[in-house]
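Appendix B. Chain record.
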Amino acid sequence: MKLGKYVILKDKQFYTVDMRLIGNAVEVTRELANTYNLLHIRDRDLDRGIIKNLDIYDKLTYYINVQVEIHRELQGLEKLLEFQVRLVAIPGIASKYSLYKAIMIDRYDQLVDNIRDVIVSDPALVDGLLSKYRVMALGFRDRRVFLAIDM
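Structure tokens predicted for this chain:
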């Protein structure tokens, strides 16, 4: 099983889920790349409608695979794709599913046909997804999933 790490990006710094400072995003990524295969990022600037961390994403993807939750569709999201950043769709917000490589769901009816990678935080959903999707477990570990994302 591969491992991922969930972080929050704000002002070029990484934070934990409860907003405790981890450190400079690039420096922390260098260290995390020794243990993790993927960074799962919630970018607070993107949440506010500002695409301003392109320089950070360019550096991060040099060390590790990166995927970013998109909680607000913006013009210019395609720029993130140029740096090999995977976009994660949030049901009810995403409209151009062709941009996205993964989707976060909490119910089966939120699945989208053209997205193969599914992120779930409820272990009860795993069994129903394994036959058709590449499952990523957010906040729990299950040896059957493709990747477990530590919070």
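Further analysis of this model is presented in Appendix C.
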